[in-house]
Structure formats: structure tokens, C-alpha cells
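Worked Example 4.2. Consider the chain below.
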Amino acid sequence: MEELVRQYKNARAVIKQIKDGEWEFQWSQRSRQVYTATRDGYELWVANGPFFLDAKDPDGSEQNAFGFIFGHWVWFAAVRKAKKEAVRKFKREHDVRFYK
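Applying the procedure from the previous section yields the following C-alpha cells:
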């Protein structure tokens, strides 16, 4: 039960932080995609959607910050929209165009 409470508190905090613009989404010039968001040394993996959403500590260790259920909550409450906005912004700034 303690684990679920910790994951809930982590999810609630990250949702608020993302909505407040505290996380910086990192643009990969090589693949032209956003894979991570960073804040104070923490790294949030956002590349694969809600199923693999997780955070890394500043020392690089995985922490299972949200679990399956709360990872989906974080994704749909904040990450999905923020990631789309970040991709649009980076594409405008770098004049990225995809050709068929």
C-alpha cells in the first residue's frame, strides 16, 4: 500500500510541475522526436507513451515512480499535451519538414 501512495504522490506532483512548465522537453535533432523531459537532474522518459513512462534519478537509476496505473494518469493528464506542444515548437524553430 505504501508503494501505491508513493506512486500517487509522485504522479500528482509531476502533473502539476508539467502543467506549470517546470519540465523541459528535450528535442533529438537526429531522430526529430522528443524522448525525454528533464527537471533538476531528473529525467522523464516520454517516448513510448503511457506504458513506459518513468523517471530516472539524477544518478541514473530507474525508480518506478508511477507504476502502470498512475503512469497512464500522468500521460493523459499532462505529458501528452505538453509533448505535442514541444514537438510543434521545435519543428517551427528548426524548420523541420517531413517529406513523403
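The mean pLDDT is 86. The two ends are 50 Å apart (CA to CA). Compare this with Example 4.1 before moving on.
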